Amino acid sequence: MTPAAGPRLTLETPVTYLTGVGPRRAEQLKRLNIFTARDLLFHIPHRYEDASTVAQIAKLRIGDDATVIGTVVSKGILPTRKGLRVFQAVVQDASGLIEAGWPGQPWLDRQIQKGDVLLLSGPVRFYHGRQLSPREFVNLGADADPTMGGRVLAVYPATEGLSFKVLRGLIEKHLDALLPLVSEYLPAAMLAEAGVPSLPEALRAVHRPTSVAAALAGRARLAYEELLFVHLLQRRARALARERRDGIRFERKRTLTTRLKKALPFALTGAQVRAVREIVADMGTEFRMHRLLQGDVGSGKTVVALFAALLALENGYQVAFMAPTELLAEQHVRTIDQLLAPLGIIPVLVTGSRTAKERRLAATRLESGEPLIAVGTHALVQEGTRFARLGLAIIDEQHRFGVDQRRLLGERGRGAEQPDVLLMSATPIPRSLALTLYGDLDVSILDERPPGRQPITTALRPEKARARVLDFVVRQLDAGRQAYIVYPLIEESEKSALKAAKSAYEELTAGVLRGRRVALLHGRLPADEKDETMRRFRDGALDALVSTTVIEVGIDVPNATVMLIEHPERFGLSQLHQLRGRVGRGAEESYCILLGDVSPEAADRLQHFLDTEDGFEIARADLELRGMGDLFGERQSGVPTFKVADPLRDTELSDLARAAAERLLAEDPTLGRPEHRRMQETLRRQYGRALELFRVG
In the chain, what are the domains? Predict the structure, then answer.
């Protein structure tokens, strides 16, 4: 197959020049990031319809899900009383006849002719007798052999106006011309160790699979390459950072750190002890520390970070502790103040809302060079904030900061001395996934909860129980407690029947919460208004907070004992877990109640959340059910994204790719050898930063 016009076909040929693609279709393909023939070839199916086992029509029963191949013996359009036009065709094989129906698709009458051989796959339902409802169909043409076998059908990511069937046809039309343009560039020994086919074989298998197993084998080759490239980039970045040797070698003087350990009113968990040792060992080298500390809500990340901060202070350095909001910065100041009071250390608060006098006093202390802990928001990286001797930068909820903000804080050192960096995250993910996503960082994980923390009673209640649930909330308020009531939307729309925060606030304050101190909180409010509302709730000036997920990562309110979540099916499991973490922070028993009628499928999904409070298990279930994009929300720059690979399901493949990347870089750190040049070119094309990371010398 050659292009309709233009130059000789190459992988860089614009799709506009491919047969069957005009300007309009080219615009539709752009929405799928398909600009060239290469992009079309590497547009990989996201699932397969297994129509390889063909059933005899006569043996079909109501309720079966089956694939049949038969000849169209009659067809027509049937109008219904509701005005819907249904295309119907009767197909016949050697065993018998069955009717197939396509509601609302009358145009198929022009595409399917009497005598055509069809492959049909879908459920058999009762409609004036047996009727097949095709989920998939392929018109094999009038010349096809009705006794031929079935096939595996590729289903592609599609877009409005461009169905997966059109994409399947377009790729099939050009596949034989494009495959010879592709050759393998990964070492044969590497492919053999991973047990995956060559690139041309893999592309043929994913687009034109002979079986589901063959399609999955082809997918594995493409996934392996993605994982290999990510590990190569991350290990090269780490190697370059280590080559610079621009860190501070902190000495373990054990003055402040030992005093803190003795002064703590609780014993550290085993996970906390392990994380502290890893961090202290890192800080004791001449290389800069770049470490991620991740742990569940309430796992004690702040205490671990304080040991790192005190090690820096012992050595005469300053510490910057950056939080995403002023409220969280204030909370960290209170926590640090309380824990370090026996040591006589008072943290400095640096936020945009401080008075001019407070800002001047803070600036004077930072510029004096005295060892201190400065806690603040992004104000810590603004032009007017200068540290005389910054040795450690701690960044809480690191995914809520841009890469540039994190980089700026990490560059606030003096001269050649660059501060060590400790990132903290409360989004717990399995260790194998963390090593893939954050391979350029060292990772410490807090997977234990401090003893004594009460479990939170969690329940799913149907809509008919609403009155009882609200009565329970009122009883908690009568007992002097506080409650969160969370909704997925701010305002209701005509398209959605979901109860929204605004209308619910009006309904509640006019009804069961009449006379109570209730406030409405959502993301469209000005930042200062949101902060003031949360402060009032924290200080006990409000009984209940009607809110959207803006409170997902919030402040400690020990007196809040109820988290009521409406329409729980609209939230991810990890998001629900973060919301549940807003309660259970005091001495009183706490409750998380999911309210609403949900489908059986949603109930099965929510059961994972009801069964455990382990954030790592919930994150794993969330990833398996919804995918990485849903767990991480807005993907931050610097975290690798994957088109084919699934770092959670492909853990074995990822481990093989990681080991291969380490061996490859040990032999050829810049991938400059002739046999690795095409791999380097592919890296450069697919990842913009590869040129910088793999520069020679």
Answer: 53-149 (2.40.50.140), 256-446 (3.40.50.300), 456-632 (3.40.50.300)
